[in-house]
Write a structure and sequence with these properties.
With about 280 residues, this protein is α/β, with parallel strands linked by helices. It contains 10 helices and 8 strands. Helices cover about 40% and strands about 15% of the residues. Helix 8 links the parallel strand 6 and strand 7.
Length: about 280
Amino acid sequence: MTVTTTAVTIGVSLKMYFGHRESLDWCARVAHLARRHPAVASGAVELFVIPGYLSLAPAATVLSGSRVLLGAQDLATDDRGAFTGEVSGTELAEIGVSLVEVGHAERRRLFGETDEVVAAKTSAALRNSLAPVLCIGETDRVGPADAAAECARQLDSAIDGAPHGRLVVAYEPVWAIGAAEPASADHIRAVCVLLREKLDTLSGRDGSVVIYGGSAGPGLLTELCGDADGLFLGRFAHDPDALGRVLDEAAELAVARETGARPASQPAPAPAPAPATPTPTGATP
């Protein structure tokens, strides 16, 4: 049985949008924001940022003392050896990285990463005490039950035989990434509830969370009513002021989770989805 947390988790990936100097300037602004934000400073809101590889080591220095966690965008399946161009989890942990993205849809689509590769990278992260930001999601637009069934399959595949440790499960429906019409709040809530229930049955995964990414922006966290443990942000958060607004939302949610109250602005819990069809139609992203 997984021990849960009331903290709200917010993450940001810069992908390859910023240059080196721009990445470090952004990290400095985020660190300043975090130091002044009561919810981040208290630990009620967990904030992690994921710049590019070249910025990781100096970013660790820039973020020092801010409680902002540092993540990497990828890692190798092995810890050392003749793997030209790869970066190991051992090296990432050595420079102060705490989390690492695994299984992102772009890695699957552009670089051919399979379920087997994702599982190997998940194990590599966990054996180096890195929390995998495990990206899962259905490829096609389907109902919540079918989407959750496909996500559960991907989760089971990724952690099969993996060492114990915390997971940050990032639900990112592939069809919603960058879409003009993202997934509805009801859809996201229903899938996240089912994933949260699954996580809660796992042993050795204390502190694991389910966050949502995929065209996530302002107001969404409030709409999700606590059924997601946080958000995984992209270009919207490249503006630190915009990120600050999401942190304010997260702080309000963290208070509600701590007290067990439901803010007046929140609607009723998400309706239970219809039963999944025997064979999920969503494909691995």
